[in-house]
Amino acid sequence: MPNVVRLNPLQPILRRSAVEEVFDELYARVLSVELPPGAKLSEAEVAKQFDVSRQTVRDAFFRLSQLGFLVIRPQRATTVSRISTHDIYKARFIRTAIELETVSRACRDLTDEDFDALDSLLTEQQAAVDVDNKPLFHALDDDFHKSICDRLGLGLVWDSIRENKAHTDRVRFLSLATGSQTALDDHREILAALRQRDAERAQLALRTHLGRIDAVVAQLQAENHEWFVQEGH
To answer: What's the rounded Cα separation, in Å, for the pair 115 and 7?
Structure first.
């Protein structure tokens, strides 16, 4: 009888579901305004385009609506949500309040190893800027802020920020056409302040970084007024 070969524990093979694939593709198109605010989406047409069931598309639509990217009206067209300036400024207020405390704690509690890991993220961001890869830079931008939270054991803090920033994300992504290097320079200033354990400098750098969205919103409103809705209307 042949010897039985014992296998080491195997890692599960992770396969992305059809819902995740449709969600990710639509998310990217809404984020980049390839699907602009106000655009109508047909469940049947999207299902045909992706060769999936309508239930799959329905589930992806629901996830996008939970993020604030889609407006689903039963028996009526599903549309890409317009960008709410009210929600942008509400999200910016919440995020600033949370992250000011976060960077203050980071100055006190993060280690040199943590700072080196954050510096590696900035190296990746520079590479994304150099090849003008806006989707990658956008993801790495989030990773920088998220990593600070995670390394403090405050992952739930980033979850709170993420839940409130859908409208902000579209504006941020559009700003990367000219503002990626500025955002990266802001990150470098934040990290330099963290390394020096200078909480006041880190908080000032963070306020400057998050406050840049005001000018971006004003410019985009002037160029594409129909994409925006005022004061949550």
So the answer is: 39
In angstroms, the CA 227 to CA 232 distance is: 13
- Comparing C-alpha atoms, which of 157, 162, 128 is closest to residue 142? 162
* Residues recorded for the chain: 233
The model's pTM is 0.81
Q: Which of 59, 86, 22, 79 is nearest to 232 (CA)?
A: 86
Q: With beta carbons less than 8 A apart as the criterion, state whether 119 and 144 touch.
A: no
pLDDT tens profile 165-223: 777 888 888 888 778 999 999 999 999 999 999 999 999 999 999 999 999 899 888 98
Cα 197 off chain centre by: 27
Nearest Cα neighbor of 191 from 84, 124, 107 is 107
Nearest residue to 102 via CA among 171, 154, 30, 58: 154
**Which superfamily, per CATH, for 84-229?**
GntR ligand-binding domain-like (1.20.120.530)
Give the count of beta carbons closer than 10 Å to the beta carbon of residue 124.
15
Q: Which two tokens stand for residue 115?
A: 């700072």
- For 18-81, which CATH class? mainly alpha
In the chain, CATH 1.10.10.10 sits at 18-81
